[in-house]
Structure formats: C-alpha cells, structure tokens
Amino acid sequence: MKFEDLVREHDKSRMLDLILSSPLEFVEYFEKYGEIELPPSVAGVKMPSEWRNVAVLGMGGSAIVGDVLRSYLLDRGDTPVEVVRDLRVPAHVGKGTLLIAVSYSGNTMETLRAVMEGLRRGAYLVAVTSGGLLSQLAAGVGAATYKLPPGRPSRTALPP
Hints:
single chain, five-stranded parallel beta sheet, two-stranded antiparallel sheet, 6 helices
C-alpha cells in the first residue's frame, strides 16, 4: 500500500494536509494582517506607547498560538510574553498589558472570563477567533480582531 493511500485511510480530518499548508497560510496571513492598525483605545483604555507585558489567553489547541509567539519573541525583544491557560489572569495583568485572546470557536468560557477580568483591570485587547462571543465582545469594546478560517481543527488554525 502506498503512503498516500495510508494517509487517506487513516487521516480522516486531513491533518497532514493542514500541517503541510501552514507555511503558505503564514505568508497569506502576513500579507493580510502584517500592517493592521490597532485602534487607539479599547474599552476606554488607550494603547500605550510601550507594552509592559503580553498575556496570550487560550485553552487547549488555541493556546499553541501563545507558545509560538513566546518562542518567537524569546530572544527578539525584552517584553515578557506569557501564555495563560486558565480562567483567571495573573495579578500583574492590567494597564500596559497587551491581552491577546485566542479562541477558535470564540465561545471558550475560560478564555472569555479571563478576557473580562483583563479588561476590568485596564488591559488592551486583541482577539483571535473565527467568530462566537469573543468576536462580539471584541467588536463591542472596539478591539482589533484577527479572523481565523472556519471549518478546521482549532489546533491547526494558527493566526499570523
């Protein structure tokens, strides 16, 4: 049996195709979102001239985005990046924090609760989602939203 036949037989969710197409998708995302402008304020919080820290909120496969960002920035900058896989945010999250909320469905309760807590403390929100309540919440407070492609496993839907 050929390798392609084995893959087709056992990879019903097309995971291999999705993984192999990722580099091309990154190029597409960078072209689409590379120059996106962030709003001057979100929920009444002005965008700071410098970020004190970055907190990426996400559960399960959605948190992988934070891991990728943290690894990428580890030796490229001095702004601390942390991945929060919880419904609570650390005590230091607040003014000067870039809060990146990632939920493929947009309906992950833990992420939504963490977003609300971060906003209450004065953090600046950017949402990454394919829709759902997170998209509505972001629109309601005037936050920038990166739209993920719908109809795929969340662990393969990495944003730019």
